[in-house]
Amino acid sequence: MTEKANIGVVGLAVMGSNLARNLASREGNRVAIYNRSVEKTNQLTADHPEANFIASESIDDFVASLSKPRTAIIMVQAGTGTDAVISQLTERFEKGDIIVDGGNALYTDTIRREKEVSAKGIHFVGAGISGGEEGALKGPSIMPGGTKAAYASLGPILETIAAVAEGEPCVTHIGSDGAGHFVKMIHNGIEYADMQLIAEAYDMLRQAGGFSPDEIADIFSEWNKGELESYLIEITAEVLRQKDSKTGEPLVDVILDAAGSKGTGVWTVQTALDLGAPVSGIAEAVFARSLSAQHAQRAGKPELPAANQVWAVEDKPAFVEAVRRALYASKIIAYAQGFDAIRAGAKEFNWEINLGEVAKIWRGGCIIRAQFLNRITDAYRKDEKLLSLLFDDYFVAAIAGTIASWREIVAMAALTGVPSPAFASSLSYYDGLRAKRLPAALVQGQRDFFGAHTYKRIDAEGSYHTLWSGDRSEIKTD
Ligand code: NAP
After folding, report:
1. Rounded to whole angstroms, what are the CA distances from 331 to 224, 227, 327, 371, 389?
2. Is the overall model pTM greater than 0.85, yes or no?
3. I need a surface site. Which of 34, 77, 80, 160 has the fewest CB within 10 A?
4. Counting atoms of ligand 1 from 1, which one is nearest the CA of 130?
5. Span 331-352, pLDDT tens digits
6. How confident is the model over 400-410, as pLDDT tens digits?
7. What mean pLDDT, rounded, does the chain reach?
8. Which residues face 72 on adjacent strands?
9. Per-residue pLDDT averaged across 179-191, rounded?
10. Bridge-partner residues for 476, per DSSP?
11. How far is the CA of 97 from the centre of ligand 1 (A)?
12. What is the pLDDT of residues 429-441, one digit of tens each?
């Protein structure tokens, strides 16, 4: 009898081929591969004979090459490509088999797909996979949803290929149906905020501090030795050190300043708006990319009034430290907002998501991997129901140690006209959260005035409406 594979991969572009190689490199795995166009299959087989793949040219042969219960990971273009492959597999799979979508699916699509596929007795697992090309090959952070039964069979395989952080695999069962893709979406949203915050810090160091890209690269490398230690800080230093092969100039000065995106940041903000979860740092990061991409509008601008104050930096080391502190504080806000959004999603969709475990599996393999995720795990381990990360002792102390610099940096940026939407909105969020009273009371008054939307009182139960155009007396409405 020909040997069968215990796991298969459908879709052999960048992510799928690297994930298949990762799987094949782990003891105990035999990997089946299939791609719609056979060229990619042939190329991968030829380039990596050591992987000993079982390659198929047809989906029928691919399914036949899998041992039961069959497990196939789909790594194709999100959207219609994923639906097409799911439909091919469900036509051929049997009860108890497992289909895993490892692409970047929208979690609502995953909820729909899980319903459709599980109706046939086949398990469907939407698994967020982070780490890009290198992560897929060497060890990504994996966020699987789906049933506990599916994870019992799939989990041990995923644990062999995931990144390892402090001896623990960066994979855990996130929750049912779309929970894994939801958490991956928020991960990407935090990634947007983190990148924007780093970019704003760079801009201040460059514009106000007058540092060159090489000098800023050194600053980031230094920062990477402390509480900001993270993959994004590390690669930022490398990007800033890179010279353009054509002109010899710093590459960052040659790259067009119009940031692209593939949609997960937008999904995060759209979802957060529906959930009423204030992810203002992530939203500012998405909008900052949108503004940068309005190149025609920016190119066509007239001479607009500028700030009339110059950011005169006298003590450069103190300035660098102030920017570092402001960056750290703003970054804490981005994560606090992201974790709040996960909690809001879990409540809405009845997922039992362990926030401390989420922080743990983001410590390795993924783009937002960072030293301080350990602190987030500790915070949720101490108090599972923590109302905000910002209320944990460690983060209270962290913000206390940065707040003066944070305010100074945001104020100076505003006074001198250095755009800093994510720094500024993070600070405003913090001040909003800690405020004893918010002007929302006035908004409620306005709403009641023009729309009889009613308001609640601080000193009595029920809803009230004021007769604004009448005798201005108040009536209780429920
Ligand atoms: P991709 O460019 O998103 O997709 C190309 C793959 O999809 C090819 O194998 C292609 O087959 C297949 N495909 C497209 N439409 C199909 C259809 N109707 N039927 C069957 N196959 C179809 O590939 P990728 O960059 O490797 O990403 C794969 C998934 O991982 C995506 O969902 C992506 O969002 C996600 N992801 C990517 C990254 C990253 O860094 N690139 C990181 C995390 C997650 P053919 O060769 O026949 O055209």
Report:
1. 14, 11, 6, 12, 12
2. yes
3. 80
4. 43
5. 999 999 999 999 999 999 999 9
6. 999 999 999 99
7. 97
8. 8, 99
9. 98
10. 464
11. 22
12. 999 999 999 999 9
The residues, ordered by sequence, that sit 6+ positions from 97 with a Cβ below 8 Å of its Cβ are 68, 69, 70, 71, 72, 122, 123
Alpha-carbon 203 to chain mean position: 23
Instruction: Give the per-residue pLDDT at 1.
Output: 54
pLDDT tens readout for residues 215-237 = 999 999 999 999 999 999 999 99
Mean pLDDT value of segment 383-393? 96
Give CA 288 to chain center in angstroms. Answer: 16
Both tokens of 5, joined, read 């594979």
**Ligand 1, atom 46: nearest CA belongs to which residue?**
37
* Band of pLDDT at residue 165, cut at 50, 70 and 90: very high
| Residues above pLDDT 90, as percent of the chain | 97
Residue with CA nearest ligand 1 atom 32: 103
Distance 74 CA to ligand 1 centre (A): 9
Q: Could you give the residue numbers annotated as active site?
A: 184, 191
